[in-house]
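Hi L., both proteins are below.
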Amino acid sequence: MDKDDLTSAQTSIERTVRLCTVKINGQPSKSSKCYIMDKLFRNYYPNRLTDEELHARLIYATVMAMDAQLELLTNCYQLTSLTCILFKVSRSIYQFRQCRSLYKTRKPFAWISPRSRSHYESGLRLERAVRQLFTSQLPTKLLKTFKLIDSKYGLLPELALRDLQKLVSDKSIGGIYQLMAEFVILWYWLYSRRHNTGAISMDRFFGGDKHIHNFLIEFLDKKLLQFPNSFIYGLAKTKLIYWESVDKAIGAYELLVVVNNHSQWPTNGLMYHKFAYWELMFAHAIKCEWYLCIRYAQLLRQSSTTTTTTTVHYSPAIAAYLEAVFRYTLAYDDNDSRLKQEATQLFR
């Protein structure tokens, strides 16, 4: 990510935290003569809280988790930063626990509308699903050491995905939490699970359950009908095509590069191209087409541009390493000493 994007994200988080803090603290009622007593009643009697205050607490907990992730991306090499990350994570967990307690004890008549209640519930379900998916990715020995594992540990991904599918499929919910659930379920199936299982076939990847595959295909088709030029949904759909045909996936990635050009997306066009180059590089590697792998590795390494709105920079170290690997592989196959020297220079 660009440094300007990270700075803008940090500024947005700080503004959201300030706004949520004002909403959470609230204002003392006119009939109350003591602000402390009014605040005490508002915190410990959930029926006295307004829907706006409850949603502000939930958004505050969500933003604190995002703030911890942003801190991890920017400053994860300093001890003080790691301490700050742990503090923000613990703060987010505490706030989510408070939100869950308020939801359980709040009476149905206290909500301004059923939609407000379902939207609040969707945020809690999203948090639980993300926490379960994250826990399922941790080593078992680590969980046993801190006594965080129980009899339901093996069912955590299944329970989490069940909640996520309900959030994505329920048209009556809508809102930001449903959109976040869509990205979480796509990330899990297309990146996390795919690279962790090492599956080489669709049946092995989905555990013999084609219902999930059909669900993802149907969901992405609906989204692409609604947003035909969306790069994110197009990228997700193309990754699913991998299981059917690598050639079809390559054609779809090349089409994404054409559709998402710099003139249409002057700020994010290059970023979209980098995603496509990365996928095309490995797609051609599956077919052992090393010349094309080198070509896309070069494009990924050398691509940098300056637009009127922002400057895009990134470290080319990974792309240079991959290009060197592809050059060395091709040199080994063709017995080409020149390619070996070029690979050596890139490794240096």
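That was the first. Here is the second:
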Amino acid sequence: MPGVIYLLFVTGCFFGVPVLSGVNVTCDSYSVLVDWNFEGFSPDAEFILEVVPNIPLPEKVQFPTRSRSYNISKHLQDTGYNLFIVKVTARNSNNETKSENSPKFTFDDAQNADIKCELEFPTIDLIPGDHQLTVKFRNPLQLYRHTPALRNITDRDQLRYEVISDEPSIQKAEQECRLEDDTCESNVLFPKEKEHYCITVSGWIRHTKVKENRKCYSGSLKPSIPITVYIIPLLVLFIFTLIMVILCKLIPKKMKKEDLTKFPPFLVNKDMHLILPLKMEKEPVVEKLLFIPVTKIPLIVDTTGSTAQPETRSSQSLDSCVSLIGENSRNESDGDELEETTVHEFVDPYTNAMNMSDYDCAHCPI
């Protein structure tokens, strides 16, 4: 076969006949692209492409192009259960080459084809928990809904996927995700503590395979105290404190307002210090006191039974009275007991001891 192609190529170059070869198909999650090789074609050469499905259609699907590649995604029908071949024919002026066929390709993993188109698995997020990992990713049914692979998808179609861990004791389980779900989630348990936790996810939509995706998590999966355990008590304490502060400000104001109503109207608008409670203040007290004993002198009684009246005092008797007081003080300091009751008078030393002019000294001689 290569020798025939080489012979045709040499013959075409010698006689000016164009040669078409190497029709190839490239498919991914979003498009299907066909490209080919050609030699000896004029700039105005035209290529006719025909999409031939495994299930015949009422009409042929043909379209012309002048480029060397073409995106045939919009011309594919029922991609979930079909097999396709693309025929390419070159037309140069009045000459038309024999059509070249592409390899068989399909999105149906159950078909026997040369090229099997698959969908890329979306990005996976691993959320750690208590001895488990939550696997979360965007729903491929919504991500690829308008691509050639899922163009004719219905609400009954689902994503079937498996989450496989590296732990041999954990059995894989098939999960499902519906079209209305924005994201798909599942949990994987890890009873043993390790340094790395790895999972592999793969799935199918109808017969279209979604390529497997592998993701690892490094960290601890030990149970941890949720942050709400700390936040809720602090929040309650803050609210309680705030309420107490507000009450402490409002209650005294209310009580003062109620107290004002008990006063006569003419005192309500007076200064507030008039109704404030009195404050206990320390009064000045003399620290050093002078004690001067005063002896009570009995009255002289007359034999006739009449009491002798004291005579008028004179300023000249003051010295005699003071001398008598001093003598009595000395007698008391020596320990002699006085027959009559002694009265102590408190005298302020800062005011000239005592006012001697007012001292009653009736017994002093005039």
